[in-house]
Amino acid sequence: MADYLVRGKLADLDPDVYELTQLEAERQYRKLILIPSESTAPMAVRETLMSAFQNIYAEGYPDEEMRWMTEEEILDYPARLAHYRRNGDPRYYKGVEYADVVESLARRRAAEAFAANGFMADQIYVNVQALSGAPANNAVYQALLNVGDTVMGLDLLHGGHLSHGSPVNRSGKWFNAVHYSVDENERLDYEAIRKLANEAKPKLLIAGYSSYSWVPDWKKFREIADEVGAYFLADISHIGGLVAAGVVPSPIGIAHVVMSTTHKSLDGPRGAVLLTTFADIAKKIDKAVFPGEQGGPHVQVFAGLALTFKLAQTRQFKKLQEQTIKNAVAMADQFMKRGLRVPFGGTDCHMLNVDCSSIVGEDGTKLSGDQAARILDIVGMVVNRNTIPGDKSAAAPSGIRLGTPWITQRGFDEKKSRQLADIIADVLAGVRAAFGGYRPQGETAPRKTGFQRVELRQVEGSQTG
Fold first, then answer.
1. Which phi-psi region, left, alpha or beta, contains residue 60 (left: φ > 0; alpha: ψ -120 to 50)?
2. Of 261, 286, 313, which residue sits at a domain end?
3. Using H for helix, E for strand and C for coil, what is the string for 265-320?
């Protein structure tokens, strides 16, 4: 019988796109990736994203009773299918009997992975449908706030996130955004935050950051939120893997809502998870995600999340997260030993920053974060330019941001991390621009290194490191 199904491999159907996939795979293998928001998902997770679940719609949610089933009950196909045939389910589409199972499995395993602070999986409500972190945060706003309400988060220039009230983001356009900042020591001052909260009276207080490199004190934030009558959102997008592994303090049961992306330190597919221990908030969040924020979810991602949260409960994952922190701490310490300024004074998580303006040319010109990131990328180390305290605009950042999830997955330990920090310092100190060489501000002359000095104009046109 003739049909219209397209058969054939990607390499045959579209050699150009196939080549792009291979080039990107080669890039990831060849370079050392130090982007804190990136990691490599296991091949098995990527297999789930190619599954037949990608072909279907599943608007709505599984039966509420499936939220509280054990994994064994969820995977009892005869019972689940019999119930589905007899009663249907709340979704808007049929053909979702297995979508119900895979979403319920992902929710259950997420609850088990994040259970902490005396709260068990049966006490945690989970939503896995948000497509990524910013849409998940927007769903929290929609669930708990009215347009024009005051939200309070860390200033973007001091390590906050766009979706925490930046004026260029929906969160800053639709809500009255008030921002706290770091103090003169570049650390959070909780008394200053408390004072600002009492003045601003936010409806939502946000902790959890994109470049501030210290884990927040969740209990202090909850105390401040309670004092001013605010909801408390813990955005653990960056440290979700560290939290799930139990190697940093968890906000579960402390924050009213916890949000994490799943593709950073959790090493999973691109997505997000929303967690709360409050039944009334859970109902509002579910409605805000669908139909409030988006339509049909990506069912294939549910399968990837189910595997991700299973792996997050293993001893291997815990050891990975422990080593990730050790490597970041080692890199920060080594940069400081080399005379480079590390904003915020260090780290206790997976990421750190370097102040590139502490590298000064012989004529007094300072290296920018953008220049540093471009040079390092050509050499073979991938970082991102980033604002640091003191910057006036995100368009002209003075720093670079580095993270250790990916290199730790590839086997780095503290010794190798220190060596890598040395190489980065050597490269930046060894660059020659038209006006002469750079040096850390603490050094009286450019450091002698094993790296040949390179003209900046040559570096920009080079193809290899």
1. left
2. 313
3. CCCCCCCEEEEECCHHHHHHHHHHHHHHHCCCCCHHHHHHHHHHHHHCCCHHHHHH
Structure letter (DSSP) for residue 390: T
Which residues have a catalytic role annotated? 57, 59, 235, 261, 264, 270
CA-based angle 438:449:355, to the nearest 5? Answer: 40
Q: Read off the pLDDT band of 440 (50, 70, 90).
A: low
> pLDDT for 347-401, tens place per residue?
999 999 999 998 887 777 889 999 999 999 999 999 999 999 998 888 889 999 9
| 279 and 356, same domain (yes or no) | no
The beta-carbon contacts of 6-10 under 8 Å, at least 24 apart in sequence, are none
Instruction: Find the distance separating the first CA and the last CA of the chain, reported in whole Å.
Output: 55
CA distance 432 to 434: 7
Domain of 441, CATH number, reads 3.90.1150.10
pLDDT for res 326: 98
Residue 433 has pLDDT above 80, yes or no: no
* Partners of 235 in the β-ladder: 259
Given pLDDT bands bounded at 50, 70 and 90, which one contains residue 165?
confident
Q: Omega into 291 within 30° of 0, i.e. cis?
A: yes
Output the CA torsion sign for 65, 68, 69, 75: positive
pTM of the complete model: 0.91
359 close to 439: Cβ distance less than 8 angstroms: yes
* Spatial CB neighbours of 79, under 8 Å, sequence gap ≥ 6: 73
Task: Give residue 241's pLDDT band: very low, low, confident or very high (50, 70, 90).
Answer: very high
How many residues would you count in the chain? 465
Angle at the Cα of 387 (from 385 to 393), degrees rounded to 5?
115
Higher model confidence: residue 458 or residue 175? 175
**CATH number of the CATH domain containing 235:** 3.40.640.10
Q: Provide the domain count of the chain.
A: 2
- C-alpha dist (Å) from residue 80 to 18, 58, 141, 278, 344: 40, 17, 34, 27, 52
